[in-house]
Amino acid sequence: MIQSKINSLNSKIAWEKIRADTELFDNFEKNVLPAYMNTCRWFAGKARIQKSFKVTTALEIPIEESMALLMIVTVTYEDGEIENYLLPVSFIDASHNKDIAPKGIITLAYINNKRGIIVDAIYDERFQQAIFYHLAHAENIEQAKGKVDFTRGKGFLGEDINAPISSRVLPVDSSNSAIVFGDKYFLKLYRKLFTETNPEVDMVEFITEHSNFAFIPAFAGSLVWKEDLNPDITLGMMQRMVENQADTWVQTGEQLEDFVDAFMAKSFSIKEEVFQQVELLAQRTAEMHLALYNTGAEKMFVPENFDESYRKFLHDRLTNLLDKRYNLLIDNYTKITDVVTRKLAWDFMEARELIDEFADGILTKPILSQRIRIHGDYHLGQVLATKNDYIIIDFEGEPESSITDRKIKHSPLKDVAGMIRSYHYAISAKMLKDSIVLKFDAHRVQTVADRWYKLIQQTFMDKYLDTFGHPHPLFKNNNEINFLMLIYLLEKAVYELGYEINYRPDWVKIPLKGIVNVIREIEKLKM
Ligand SMILES: Nc1ncnc2c1ncn2[C@@H]1O[C@H](COP(=O)(O)OP(=O)(O)O)[C@@H](O)[C@H]1O
Ligand SMILES: O=P(O)(O)O[C@H]1O[C@H](CO)[C@@H](O[C@H]2O[C@H](CO)[C@@H](O)[C@H](O)[C@H]2O)[C@H](O)[C@H]1O
């Protein structure tokens, strides 16, 4: 790994003109950035062999009496792949004595005879306020190349355009960074950048501007770097801030504690309140899909058929994923020590032919259901629980897919499968607790977990489909619904197998059981 070689940066040039100091930039790229970025949670390349860090663009944003630079840092890896990251930076003079979170301090610096620190500007209040001001006034800031275009969405309240507002960084470490304004607005600054509009902005803006669906945080604005001859690059998006108790992964986990207590006391009990919540989430999910089903919409959102090219895409994707996961599983098989997990792995490996044959149905079966833009990475962690309802967030799409693939239309059943898998995870993870595993026979624990899962799955599916009413062009008939659900459940569980092998080996059993559940259903269809 590349290490930092200096403690401070020096320049005789004023900070506002710092781009002219090529020597400083060179130093920054070689000696400061690698060390700093490797400490950041949002930098996804930590485990890879890094070759270089280059500031390929530095967009200028005026801030109170100074300037912040929205740097686009291009990271090149040894295998030749590159990634672009957004790093906003500003210089804070020591005499201003600002209280900056230690993780925001990039380096000490002497700039134009002034001692200070170069910081990640999200921690600099001047930057926070400037961004809010530009969003509120929907300004364009001209750059050496193109402009930074700030837009204001329907979710931005007129009363806030000129009113003072407090700002702070949300202390949640995730793949992006968030600044919160007056507990009213949530601004996400994207860290990993893509040379196309981020799907999240497309989706949130579309739902806010073209439907009455109120269960996403309304779109309040975005900032985009636009250059005539190149695709737009989305830098950030602002939504209304949602007061929430927790996400539904946490909520479901808490409810499952009651279920586990009942099980320990030898009874099977799911509170009526739990079924009501599952139904409400299913209803909101269906309503989100109805908001996205807009036959009069522009091309990006108009519903499409299961044409040949989509069928081929879906089939290729599933079979490629299967190839990758079979190889990964074979490579890691000896690390699996648990007998039950080994047996599940065997069941999966032995079913390759059956799965391939079933997957070929994607190419050959008549499918008259339609497809639309969907959430794409839908699970319990992507839904915030408010006092009495749910708010759906994080429309960035599947983390492993390219931006172009994330914008492909699917049957909304793919989202449903994501959520059903998540319920399966919730009960399975809970049942892995030592207090249960050590006390009860594995077969009995599995039977009880299956029973919980089947009831919840059925409750979700029934309410989801009822909300659409029958028939609906998105779901031609039950045969298609069942076939597509199995395909998407399989795809998701096979994807998850990779995630668990790489990040949570103790949980490998969960997606394997999900895959084997699908195999058993396929076998039943053949009988
Ligand atoms: N509009 C919002 N209002 C309040 N909190 C939010 C909002 N959007 C996201 N969050 C919080 O920020 C966390 C990260 O948001 P998410 O959209 O998942 O970002 P990332 O893309 O960084 O994963 C969420 O789990 C939630 O706690
Ligand atoms: O939320 P991300 O987009 O980062 O998704 C990744 O991490 C998820 C875990 O946080 C992972 O989700 C899997 O585990 C969840 C429980 O932790 C479960 O609710 C999901 O159903 C399951 O897929 C996701 O697969 C991964 O891409």
Polypeptide structure, described:
- Strands 1, 2, 3, 4, 5, 6 and 12 form a seven-stranded mixed beta sheet that branches. A seven-stranded antiparallel beta sheet has the order 7-8-13-14-11-10-9. It has a three-stranded antiparallel beta sheet with strand order 15-18-19.
- The longest helix has 27 residues.
- The protein folds into four domains: 115 residues; 112 residues, Phosphorylase Kinase, domain 1 (2-Layer Sandwich); 162 residues, Aminoglycoside 3'-phosphotransferase, Chain: A, domain 2 (Alpha-Beta Complex); 111 residues.
- With 527 residues, the chain is an alpha+beta fold.
- The mean pLDDT is 94.
- The protein binds adenosine-5'-diphosphate and the ligand O=P(O)(O)O[C@H]1O[C@H](CO)[C@@H](O[C@H]2O[C@H](CO)[C@@H](O)[C@H](O)[C@H]2O)[C@H](O)[C@H]1O.
- The site of the ligand O=P(O)(O)O[C@H]1O[C@H](CO)[C@@H](O[C@H]2O[C@H](CO)[C@@H](O)[C@H](O)[C@H]2O)[C@H](O)[C@H]1O has 11 residues, from helix 10 and helix 13.
